[in-house]
Amino acid sequence: MQAILTDITKCVGCRKCVGSCQSINACAPERPEQKAQPEELFNTRYTTIVRKTNAASEPRFVRRHCRHCLNPACVSVCPVGALKKTPAGPVIYDKRRCMGCRYCMFACPFGIPRSEWESLAPGIKKCTFCFEKTQMGGQPACTEACPEGATIYGQRDTLLTEARQRISNEPERYLHKIYGEHELGGTSVIYLSDINLDFLSFDKDLSDVPAPELTWKFIKETPFISGAVGLSVGFLYWLWKRKLKLTKGSSIG
Amino acid sequence: MRKLFITKLILTIFTGIGLAGGFYRFACGLGASSNLSNAVPWGLWIGFDDMAGVALASGGFVITAIVYIFHLKRFRPILRSTICTAFLGYCLVPFSLLLDIGLPWNIWHPMIYWQYHSILFGVALCVMLVSTILMVGFAITVLEHPLFALPLFQKIYRFLNKYFLVCVVLGIIVSTLHQSWLGSLFLILPHRVHPLWYSPIIYVLYFLSAVGLGCSMIIVESTITSFLYGHSIENKLLQDLGRASSVVIFLYAIVRCADLAIRHKLSIAANGTWQSNLFLAEMIVSAILPIAIFNIKGLRSKRRWLFTAAVLVVGGFILNRLCTSFITIYKPEGTSYIPSLIEICTSLGLISAGALVFFYCVEHLNLFEGKFAHKPAHKVKIPVFSIPGLHDQFSALNHISRYTLAFILSVSFGMAVFYVTTSNERKYHTVQTVKSQASPDGKTLRITGGNNRLFVDFNHRFHQDTLGKNESCKKCHHMNIRQNEVSPCYICHGEMYKPTPLFNHAFHEAQFRDKGSCKVCHPRERTETTYRSCKDCHPTMFPNKPVGNPMQLNAPPYMDAMHSSCIQCHQTEWPKTGKPTPDYCNTCHKDMEGDIWKKKYGGPIKIETQDSVSGKAADISVKDIKR
User: How much is the average pLDDT of B471-492?
Assistant: First the structure.
């Protein structure tokens, strides 16, 4: 399972990852109003740097992009299977299947997918983990571009071990939590940080239950619900008919 | 019949305006015609047309259950009209979806790419199944029309009549699923939907409210039809429906409050925020007031009160659906959503079109089981216009022509209004167009190269020559955004808007390796924002005098800005860096060697620099190079 480990304490905020991401994905040039919001994700910018301050009022830079959840909400809600979780890890998107319902944008707990609002055929845009590149054995453009080694690419298990190692080596440097290890069933993009990263998701207190479980609990009951409704409707029909027969339609009819 | 005429005229006008709005939706794109954004991906089209529309159409399965399963035959008079409205309501859902989804030509994809784990897939399947079943119910009414007297049609009619009970049972099952699945669309969104509207058993709430709402909707539509067409419906019938509605809504309110209480969320309802007030208002309008009215016999027996209570229920539950889908959802700071004019007008237009088709069915089909067949009114009193001549013209038209006239006028009115009000920034690659004009010296064109109303001087002849003479037009003008004369400069000069400046970080790093590298430029901390200005080390990098005329508030022409920065710097810095001195234009512009330079300037132009003119600083200005 491919993964990215981002160490917030190492990032200097050079935005090289943003630039290389845009050039490898051949993003359209940013429009002036998009340039004015450097911390926001757009359909022309799949990753961005959010500036925050830590307890010692030093600036901290948090790279925000698709988390590639292990059990992604966007994939589970897509009615046509345009979004797919590949066995290798990346969550990829196929515009030929998409019908543009934007349920994925609504459902994503991290608010990542962006619709192409300026287009006449708006699909969605999001980080795809440089899927073609990683399939060929390369690494994502962003990790390749990082001059500080703040964001690194590797196998998820290796990176988790590495993260735990770093925390145990310098326990005063980090919060003792690996962001993305357990939240929502785990994500492929994990963070080490000395500031609270809850602002990356809508929900300030993410549970460890994957989001799709919330609906699956209901969907798996569907056959029973429809069966129960059908049977009860049939039973009521029979009951009322019998009642009518007994009373010879005197009062009910 | 004047009220009928005016009602239909108003509905015709709304339909026309809605059609114009639909046209703009497809012509300008989703972003330009709606106020949807990354923060609020679902708006009025989903919340009102789909969520509320499907809930309102639930009257269909409620009434069939009453008549066919509970054998309450006295409700038969309103059976067919309710099935008809439910069918029309379901027919409007795909239309509103076509407006809402980004790639409407792919709307059939759920049929082939089955995704059983997606609620939306189930909803799409249910829309198709329920409309098919309702169509069977509606077909029975249609086939009674004299037009379908052929034996084949009669055979189908008898077949459908015989097996209609199967359809009823299937319809009830699928409708139950559909109503509850619409609610469970929000199950996966505990982080977006407000806690007062989110519930882990939201599907139960949606199903119960749909049943209650269905009963009330039957009251509303029966009252309106009987008011317009002047026929009477037994008051007892509607009262019973009202009482049934109140029972179900009471159950709904109990379940909803109990659910909130169990999850310790009930206190949020009383904390005085606007969401909690909205919640209380919604509960009063949709539950408390109607339950009270439906259960007080003195009020219930009056048609007016019955109608009021039913309208309250309908309004309250529409508000409920809107709240869940966009009003109270969590939005990132600084974002808001108010439906755009086009969204509102198309939604109204769709409903009006549905109502018009319903009135057509009332007038031409046997919707009320033979007890009532409306004769179309041909003698309609027309409003009197004071302008002589126009009145005669108007009254000379028959009633169909009048509707047609109103329709055409309203479509044109809508076109005009939407043309003015469509937001320009998000229109499909269109921006406010500015005509290019000649610069004061007459040599260059003054264009708004960034499409931001900031002008730059653009040397058209130069671009034409370098890009291949007559062949060159298409290179820029085919990339034009619509209705615009110029392509933005950034389409070719992409580096203009690159997030990283034209600065070779690695080179500087290597240069300062011995002197503490980072600290030279980032004295305090190593971040993107805390660097020393380039000017500190390279004082000559910036032109001393402004290149453009600052009084005209113009940006300097791109070439002038680049030349005055690059050339001056290269003159002074080249011995240190080992970079070439720009002796000739083609030192930098390597791709521009050859004919064009010879033809234009009679050979490569030599740029006189400090070095070449034996230590004497040559007065280089951009004007010289241009010439």
Answer: 63
Helices (H), A170-221: 211-219
DSSP B606: B
pLDDT tens per residue, range A180-216: 999 899 999 999 999 999 889 888 888 888 989 989 9
Alpha-carbon span A143 to A159, nearest angstrom? 13
Over residues B251-263, the mean pLDDT reads 94
| Contact between residue B182 and residue B51 where contact means Cβ atoms under 8 Å apart | yes
Q: Is some CB atom of chain B closer than 8 A to the CB atom of A146?
A: no
The dihedral over CA atoms of B283, B284, B289, B294, expressed in degrees to the nearest 10, equals 0
pLDDT of residue B2 exceeding 60, the answer is yes
Q: Any bridge partners for residue B277, and if so which?
A: none
Distance in angstroms (rounded) separating the CA atoms of residues B50 and B324: 13
B68: which residues sit within 8 A by CB, 6+ positions away? A237, B164, B165, B168
- pLDDT for res B459: 76
* Whole-number percent of chain A with pLDDT over 90: 52
Threshold 0.90, pTM exceeds: no
ipTM score here?
Answer: 0.91
CA angle at residue B54 from A114 to A233, to 5 degrees? Answer: 130
B65 interfaces chain A, CB cutoff of 8 Å:
yes
Q: Where does B99-238 show beta strands of DSSP type E? A: none
Rounded-to-integer distance, Cα B167 and Cα B173, Å: 10
Q: How far apart are CA B524 and CA B518, in angstroms?
A: 10
Chain A CB contacts of B497 under 8 Å are 29-30, 32, 35
| Residue where the block lists tokens 């000559």 | B540
Residues of B in contact with A210 (CB under 8 A): none
CA distances from B61 to B122, B130, B211, B290, B345 (A): 18, 10, 9, 22, 29
The whole-angstrom separation of Cα A141 and Cα A129 is 9
What is the Cα Rg of chain A in Å? 24
8 A C-beta contact, residue A192 and residue B165? no
Distance (Å) from the alpha carbon of A150 to chain B's nearest alpha carbon: 13
Give the integer Cα–Cα distance in Å for A208 and B30: 36
Reply yes or no on whether the pLDDT at B591 is more than 70.
no
Burial class (CB in 10 A: 0-12, 13-18, 19+), B480: middle
Task: Using a pLDDT cut of 70, give the percent of chain A over it.
Answer: 97
Average pLDDT (B464-474) is: 76
Q: Which residue has the tokens 């993305």?
A: A180
Chain B 198-237, CB below 8 Å of chain A: which residues? 200, 203
- How far, CA to CA in Å, does B257 sit from each of B266, B279, B424? 7, 11, 45
Q: Taking the mean position of all CA atoms in its chain, how far away is CA B462?
A: 43
The rounded distance, in Å, linking the Cα atoms of B219 and B238 is: 6
- Is B192 in CB contact (< 8 Å) with chain A? yes
Whether A193 and A175 have beta carbons less than 8 Å apart is answered as yes
B5 contacts B377 by C-beta, under 8 angstroms: yes
The answer on pLDDT for B499 being more than 80 is: no
- Work out the number of other CB atoms within 10 angstroms of the CB of residue A162: 16
Contacts A–B by Cβ distance under 8 A: 222
Distance CA B62, CA B57 (A): 10
Report the range out of A26-40, B56-70, B355-369 with the highest average pLDDT. B56-70
Whole-angstrom distance, CA of residue B142 vs CA of residue B137: 9
Paired tokens of A117: 């609002």
Q: How many CB atoms lie within 10 A of CB A248?
A: 8
Give the type of residue at A229: V
Q: How many CB atoms lie within 10 A of CB B241?
A: 26
Tell if the CB–CB gap between A106 and B189 is shorter than 8 Å. yes
Find the closest chain B residue to A38 by CA distance.
Answer: B499
